[in-house]
Design brief:
7 helices, histidine kinase, alpha+beta, two-stranded antiparallel sheet, binds adenosine-5'-diphosphate
Amino acid sequence: YMARFAPYLSQSSEFSGIIIVFQDMTEQYKLDNLRREFVANVSHELKTPITTIKSYTETILAGAIEDKELSIQFLNVVNDECDRMSRIVSDLLQLSNFDNKEVEWEKEYMSLEKLINRVVMKLELTMKEKDQKVNIYIKKDLKDIYADKDAIEQVIINILSNAIKYTPENGIINIILNSKDNNNEIIIEDDGIGIPKEDINRIFDRFYRVDKARSRDLGGTGLGLSIAKRIVESHNGQINIESEYEKGTKVIITLPIK
Ligand code: ADP
């Protein structure tokens, strides 16, 4: 709490007491702290690729350029790190768009089945490379939902890419489309590495990752779930994660039909 004091003077300007105003600072304090933490995180996330790029270009300039093969190897690292920075920046821009203004969604009636097929097609190659199998189960006569197609596609891409990333070779991923009352449910479950109990509550926080090194190696930014949550909630839906460490993870997305 913050307290402000002021003398209270009566009409004849005689001192007759003190006014004390208590202001609850908890919210403001929390926000300031979050903002500080966020800026620190962003700086740190960008600093890592910058340091890598700097050291590799320096090595090339210091003479490695004479060795063509080595140079190509180093330049590939530089290239990958640039891609990574660009992913972080575009994810951040998207999140800051959500923060700064009411996003105007272009809602229309859309088929989840078509959307899932489209996303699976986009990610098929990555799954093939890991010999992963995907099963799709769709309830008959599933109703269309009223939503922004691109936004929901992004949600599914983020969640399915996680399922692929955090599931070892030969894993199985199930996608289930179901309807319940006035909602459609999208379930994406994998039999991958799972999430320890103590991390589950923080998993939607910006930049939070169970294993930073692993996520980084797999190209993650730590922002995918935050973005997915923002999109789903601004469609009046919900996103929940159930997971068992070393067994697998199940993401349940509920979206209203209307
Ligand atoms: P990232 O870019 O690191 O994947 P996300 O915001 O998408 O960021 O996810 C945050 C973290 O949640 C991941 O780093 C990972 O530790 C964990 N996670 C997300 N999905 C899964 C999953 N299907 N299986 C295991 N861990 C997961």
